[in-house]
Amino acid sequence: MTEMTDETVKLPPAVEQMVLRWGDLGGQWGVNRSVAQIQALLFLSDSPLTAEDIAETLGMARSNVSNSLRELMAWKLIRRVPVLGDRRDHYEAETDLWQMATKVAQGRKEREIDPMVSAIRDTMALLRDNDSEVSPRVKDRLLRMHEFVTTVDSWYQQMLQVPPETLMRLIRMGAKVVSLLNLVGRKGQARVEPD
After folding, report:
1. Is 80 in contact with 91 (CB distance < 8 Å)?
2. 33 φψ region: left (φ > 0), alpha (ψ -120 to 50), beta (else)
3. 3-state secondary structure of 90
4. Which domains are seen in the chain, by residue range?
5. How far apart are CA 187 and CA 86, in angstroms?
6. Is 2 left (phi over 0), alpha (psi -120 to 50) or beta?
7. For residue 7, what pLDDT band results from cuts at 50, 70 and 90?
8. How many Cβ atoms from other residues are within 10 Å of residue 42's Cβ?
9. What is the pLDDT at residue 193?
10. What pTM does this model have?
11. Chain segment 65-79, per-residue pLDDT in tens
12. Phi/psi class of residue 94: alpha, beta or left (left: φ > 0; alpha: ψ in -120 to 50)?
């Protein structure tokens, strides 16, 4: 059971709402509702929690909590931490939002982008070997797909090197950056055009 019940530990209303909403959003992101709720609960917890604490608070089966904790650890969104005087495993969430975003992006890249990069790379190798068997239109589409996928992959690798505070400044600049790029692009085109 993943919804709050009368038998669950009472959370502050704001925390309860966020845990429930995060669980709903998880489903839209392709993440199990229980996994998302546990991540939200740990993120909003003042101290590390045991699996039993989580099960009791969220009204979930202990086995569901254990499976969800394993998944969150695989994503590196939570970690096991020792608590003095208690032999049970305690868990806490990654609370640095940039680290969370980076870890989710890395996990998504490994599961979604990397296989696509590999597939298009293999396809391009086949295309080189059997060039005459593919129409020019299909070759063009494959070449554009290859360029797009490898550019996105390269961009992702570059963004990992940019410090979070620099990324945040770029994000806050938003439309100003786009306007600047458009202005620079227009000036560059103006120089290329004949008089």
Report:
1. yes
2. alpha
3. strand
4. 13-93 (1.10.10.10), 97-192 (no CATH)
5. 66
6. alpha
7. low
8. 23
9. 40
10. 0.73
11. 999 999 999 999 999
12. beta
